Amino acid sequence: MIMTADIPNKENISNSLANRNISLLVVLPLIVLDQLTKFLINKTITISHEKIVVIPNFFHIVHVRNRGAAWGMFSNYGIILLALSFIFLFFILYYQKNLIENRKSFQWALSLITAGIIGNLIDRMFYGEVIDFLCFFYKNFQWPSFNVADSSICVGVGIYILFSFLNPKDSEENEKLEKINNIK
Question: 20 to 30 A from 137, CA-CA: which of 52, 67, 99, 101?
Answer without folding.
Answer: 67
